[in-house]
Amino acid sequence: MKASAPGKIILFGEHAVVYNRPALAVPVDQAQVEVEVTDSDKSGVWIDAPMVELHGELSTLPDDHPIAAVILKLFQHLGISQHPNILLTIRSTIPVAAGLGSGAAVSVAMFRALSSYLSHPLSDEQVNGLVFEIEKLHHGTPSGIDNTVITYNKPVFYMKHKPVETFTCGKPFTIVIGDTGVPAPTKESVGDVRRLWLHNENRFEEMFNEIAQISTMARRFIETGHPEHLGELMDQNQEFLKQMTVSSPELDVLIYAARRAGALGAKLSGGGRGGNMIALVDQAAAESVAASLTSAGAKRTIITEIK
Ligand code: MEV
């Protein structure tokens, strides 16, 4: 039994989304997780996950190991007490800790493949809820945006505690993603923003309101077929992210390089302090902006069309 899940990028509203403001995120098909579940001739639940250099049996892993936690959660959810003899093979082209949602994508694909193998396929809503439980184990206070965009595999306008809203693009647009190669410490940056917010609630609430307006305007421009206006909104969003202390020298260098190479706007994407930045480009300029990012130190670039 096989299942796959895409990566994701946040276009607007990261961090503010933790404080009940809307954010926009889209799936990225160029980065994928694939999980296959087959019978095992060895006894137990075997996991083969080369991207995290793991080949081992479930009972040798701590219960809160990200991969073990998914399996144990599903067994608990389905009321399975006897572990079947199975082999889970996990392959991923989503870089880990890069702001592309690798953890949530692994969890989504695992829940789907394993539940189908056990003849109890889960609905999207069930997968989304279970993956959110796993995200909470690892990230403290996640907003739920990563599991939502990856589970539904559609662009989402996301607000905590609100029904999922997907959106469609009036006109496709092109984004270049550049990876700093520095792991994004999302739990730490989310925690630091919380501490700063506690010290200066008025200022942070004001910034979150401004970002909420940016996300709302961006959705309108996307839906009405005017993505060319998104560049300026990205630059504005990036200024607020900087004030929130979640940018970094490496991100700033790539963002600057993208703008100099003709991008219409650029910002970090995800938790920040590392991980990825994104730039809005005319399709014809995508390759040259990607090349400039590589020259400026990006460890990897992805060109993706949002449609
Ligand atoms: C992480 O991809 C996005 C953050 O807004 C955290 C979250 O929403 O849980 C930084």
Keywords summarizing the entry:
307 residues; alpha+beta; seven-stranded mixed beta sheet; 9 helices; binds (R)-mevalonate
Structure commentary:
With 307 residues, the protein is an alpha+beta fold. Helix content is 41%, strand content 24%. The protein has two domains: 2-166, Ribosomal Protein S5, domain 2 (2-Layer Sandwich), CATH 3.30.230.10; 173-306, Alpha-Beta Plaits (2-Layer Sandwich). A hairpin with a 4-residue loop joins β3 (45-49) and β4 (54-57). The strands form two sheets. Strands 1, 2, 3, 4, 5, 6 and 7 form a seven-stranded mixed sheet that branches. It has a four-stranded antiparallel sheet with strand order 9-10-8-11. α1 (66-78) packs parallel to α2 and α2 (102-117) packs across α3. The longest helix has 23 residues, at 201-223. Bound molecules: (R)-mevalonate (MEV).
Per-chain topology:
Elements (H helix, E strand, L loop, with lengths): L1 E11 L10 E17 L5 E5 L4 E4 L8 H13 L7 E7 L9 H16 L6 H16 L5 H8 L3 E3 L6 E2 L6 E7 L6 H14 L1 H23 L6 H14 L5 H12 L4 E5 L6 E6 L4 H10 L4 E7 L1
Parallel strand pairs: 3-5
Antiparallel strand pairs: 1-2, 2-5, 2-6, 3-4, 6-7, 8-10, 8-11, 9-10
Helix pairs in contact: 1-2, 1-3, 2-3, 3-4, 5-6, 6-7, 8-9
The protein binds (R)-mevalonate.
(R)-mevalonate (MEV) binds next to α4 and α5.
